[in-house]
Design goal:
Blueprint lengths: L22 E3 L1 H4 L12 E14 L5 E11 L4 E3 L1 H9 L10 H20 L4 E5 L14 E2 L25 E2 L3 E12 L6 E11 L3 E2 L1 H9 L8 H16 L3 E8 L5 E8 L7 H4 L12
Parallel strand pairs: 6-8
Antiparallel strand pairs: 1-4, 2-3, 2-12, 3-5, 7-10, 8-9, 9-11, 11-12
């Protein structure tokens, strides 16, 4: 697998440079888990927030803000994160439009066309230069596992992905909605740590116990994978082991290199976190974002 520009020392482009964008075939990260491209066991998206999008108007006024981009998980490719960072920063000294609004229309059209051409799919995106007074949040009713009494005496010893931790630890409950801020993995190429939160909604006759689920999430701590792969790995393990009626996994990774990625995978669209997936809504950030 080509590593592209990720992990390499690369000079920032000084002008608009769509040629720096690099795609990674999704099947490369799915084969190991038995996930078939022609019959995905989930639907969902990858939500990107880019915090370093900026350009100049024709009058030289800088315009800065956050780009939100929503990419379907059934696209044949994902975009390599560092190449996207370089690409977005290539707009920094370019001049577009008499007004910020005029310039934004041009910029967003460029980005949409370039990314769609790269990934061979439709992409939704929006630009935000201010936060709502009351930003939206999808996970307010999710129980944080690390604060639940049932896991306070749990001993953690596994730090490479261990799905066996999920077996034989069952509770008979119809549905759980849980989360944790203890998600950590490493970049597949650079091995730099990636921090995040995981939110899981699972419905069915067989449900993992809180302590086993948290021990499993913690066991991902030393895994070297892309964010999208981590989300799909968690989903596939739960789907295979527990055969639930419905399942949703969302991994909200923290910002690194001016970008954060939030993959969401679910068995049905009704379980999707509505605000996060809406390109026109800037959701409330978590503590480390």
């Amino acid at each position: 697998m080509s590593t592209g520009v990720l992990g390499k020392q690369v000079e920032y482009p000084k002008c608009y440079s769509p040629d720096v964008l690099e795609a990674v075939p999704r099947y490369l990260n799915r084969e190991i888990y038995g996930i078939r491209e022609e019959q995905l066991p989930f639907c969902g998206v990858d939500v990107w927030h880019a915090y370093e999008l900026s350009f100049l108007t024709l009058k030289g006024l800088p315009v800065t803000g956050v780009l939100k981009m929503v990419i379907p998980c059934n696209s044949p490719f994902l975009v390599e994160s560092k190449s996207l960072k370089l690409y977005l920063n290539s707009f920094n000294m370019e001049q577009y439009g008499d007004t910020p609004c005029d310039g934004l229309a041009i910029i967003l059209n460029h980005i949409r066309q370039d990314v769609e051409r790269l990934l061979k799919c439709s992409v939704k995106l929006s630009f935000f230069d201010k936060m709502d007074d009351a930003p939206k949040y999808d996970f307010g009713d999710y129980l944080l596992l690390e604060y639940d009494d049932s896991v306070q005496n749990t001993i953690f010893t596994h730090y490479t992905e261990t799905p066996e931790l999920l077996e034989g630890n069952l509770i008979h409950r119809n549905e759980i909605k849980v989360g944790t801020h203890l998600l950590r993995s490493n970049c597949k190429i650079t091995r730099q740590p990636d921090w995040g939160s995981a939110f899981i909604c699972i419905k069915g006759a067989r449900i993992p116990a809180y302590d086993s689920l948290l021990r499993y999430i913690v066991s991902i701590r030393n895994e070297n994978h892309f964010h999208e792969e981590i989300c799909e790995m968690i989903y596939q393990r739960l789907w295979t082991l527990f055969e639930p009626d419905q399942l949703m996994v969302a991994c909200i990774y923290t910002r690194r290199g001016g970008l954060d990625i939030s993959p969401v995978r679910s068995s049905c669209p009704e379980l999707h976190p509505n605000f996060l997936l809406n390109p026109d809504v800037m959701t409330m950030k978590l503590l480390r974002q």
